[in-house]
Design goal:
Elements (H helix, E strand, L loop, with lengths): L11 H10 L5 E3 L3 H11 L5 E6 L8 H15 L3 E6 L21 H15 L10 E5 L1 H4 L3 H8 L4 H4 L3 H8 L6 H16 L4 E5 L3 H13 L6 E5 L25 H9 L6 H9 L11 H19 L2 H16 L9 E4 L5 E3 H9 L3 H9 L3 E3 L2 E2 L6 E3 L7 E4 L3 E7 L1
Parallel strand pairs: 2-3, 2-5, 3-4, 5-6, 7-13
Antiparallel strand pairs: 1-6, 8-11, 9-10, 9-12, 12-13
């Protein structure tokens, strides 16, 4: 990939604004480009177009996504327009970033459902005002004729694409890289051409794609975008990237008590990055990270995150719930009811847990086998999946420490 040329120097006030808007990012590339884009937008009396591409391969947004979405909100608050690209077409290819194997291909129905959910959840962080948010689907322009696809392919060499770190590692290890995966960075780059992006945001794992988009814009005669990369938030395990597939995510629409409990489960050493990336380090309790101080700081962090994504009242209720249910071992003040239907006189609990708590059946079976599921005071044992209906009516099903349903048999 060609080295990005430096942008011409902008007025000091734009450099100061660019520095404020880039706060918390890892890379702002090329040097001075963001300031120049801000200056150009003012000269042309328009809002800067700030792009984020998302592939709807999963329906839910977690706090890892929120790091980038919150930075987008900073640009909206400064008066600029976010262009959210829902990658309904590129999802058919699958983003290969950080992958050692080809992603499974989703059906069009799954992609559409995920895209709708993702867009709805993004509005918990973004301003949905029409002048500040534009939502597009890249199937609008990527369902192109073969001639147009060949023209796009001519913008980039195979050597450029194979510079990608994850591709290079896979080839060195003797693992295949499909032609479909090689197309992905080109298609993502063409998104920037189609919407005339001034600035594109992404995680650090997207840096190659974001810079390649500049080359593709140049090939099409479109002004090259500036690039801003954001840090990757670790999941609740404190080490791996937050991901639903790894089971270490905290969803932005999780119930307040669920969100509160998940934040308390993160390792002490991860608190600093959560404060910095999600809350800008401004909540009560910052800096106390050992012993009782760490416990108090983590509760303060949990309150702040629940307050941000729900409300102060929800945060206080979640704190009371944690004390009552997890610390004291009591039932919640209110237990939601679930009506269950028996088949041949029994209920298959993994299916019930899947439908009520949103986890997979394999995870539900694993919880039962590990003794983490109970009916009232009776802990279920290994393989205790199908329970006679007579044991269920009126009983409280508990899965883990924080999930409860009072069962009513239909």
């Amino acid at each position: 990939m060609a080295n990005a040329p430096e942008a011409p120097a902008a007025e000091p006030r734009f450099s100061e604004l660019a520095q404020r808007l880039a706060a918390g990012s890892v890379d702002s590339l090329p040097d001075g480009a963001l300031a120049e884009k801000l200056a150009l937008a003012e000269r042309e009396r328009r809002r800067m177009r700030v792009k984020l591409g998302i592939d709807p391969t999963a329906p839910d947004i977690h706090l890892g996504h929120a790091v980038v979405l919150r930075k987008l909100r900073d640009f909206q608050d400064a008066g600029h327009r976010v262009v959210l690209i829902v990658g309904d077409f590129t999802a058919r290819v699958g983003d290969p970033s950080g992958r050692s194997t080809l992603r499974p291909i989703l059906s069009e129905e799954e992609i559409d459902a995920n895209a709708a959910t993702f867009q709805e959840q993004a509005l918990t962080i973004l301003d949905g005002s029409p002048e500040l948010l534009e939502v597009r689907r890249n199937s609008e322009w990527l369902a192109m004729e073969m001639g147009a696809l060949l023209a796009l392919a001519r913008t980039t060499t195979a050597a450029q694409l194979l510079e990608r770190d994850d591709f290079a590692k896979r080839l060195a290890a003797g693992e295949p890289v499909s032609m479909l995966e090689l197309l992905y960075p080109l298609l993502q780059g063409y998104d920037s051409v189609a919407v005339r992006s001034d600035l594109e945001l992404g995680g650090t794992d997207q840096k190659f794609n974001l810079l390649l988009a500049r080359d593709i814009q140049r090939a099409y005669g479109v002004p090259e975008q500036a690039v801003l990369t954001m840090p990757i938030l670790a999941g609740t395990d404190g080490t791996r990237k937050m991901s639903k597939s790894l089971g270490n995510q905290i969803g932005v629409t999780d119930a307040p008590e669920e969100m509160y409990g998940k934040v308390l489960s993160i390792p002490d050493e991860a608190m600093g990055s959560y404060r910095e990336l999600l809350l800008r380090g401004d909540e009560e309790g910052e800096g106390a990270e050992t012993g009782a101080g760490a416990r108090d700081a983590k509760h303060a962090l949990a309150r702040a995150i629940v307050t941000w994504l729900h409300s102060p009242e929800d945060a206080e209720a979640a704190a009371r719930h944690f004390e009552r249910v997890v610390v004291q071992g009591q039932l919640p003040e209110e237990v939601p009811e679930a009506v269950v239907a028996a088949v041949d006189g029994a209920v298959h609990l993994p299916a019930l847990i899947e439908s009520e708590f949103g986890m997979s059946r394999s995870d539900a079976r694993r919880m039962i086998d590990q003794g983490a599921v109970s009916l009232d005071d009776h802990t279920l044992g290994r393989g205790d999946y199908d329970v006679p209906v007579g044991r269920l009516d009126g009983k409280v099903l508990r899965a883990g420490k924080r999930r409860f349903r009072r069962l009513r048999v239909d």
